[in-house]
Amino acid sequence: MSTIRGVNLGGWFVLEGWMSPDLFEGVSGSDETIFMEEKENAEIALENHWDTFIVEEDFEWLSDHGVGYVRLPIPWWYNGDGVYHNSKLYIERAMVWAEKYDIKVLLDLHTAPGSQNGFDNGGITGVLEWPEPENVAKTVEVIGQIVEDFSIFDSLWGIELLNEPGWGVNMTILQNYYLDAYQVIRDYNSDVYVGFHDGFRNYDYTWTRFFNDNDFTNVFFDIHLYQTFGDNWGDYDIFDHVDFVHSAQKETIDRYEGIVPIVIGEWSLGLQGNVYEGLNYESTNLVKMAFGAAQFNEYENSFGWFFWSYKIDRDSHLEWDFRRLIEEEIIPDYFNN
Question: Which domains are seen in the chain, by residue range?
Answer without folding.
Answer: 4-327 (3.20.20.80)
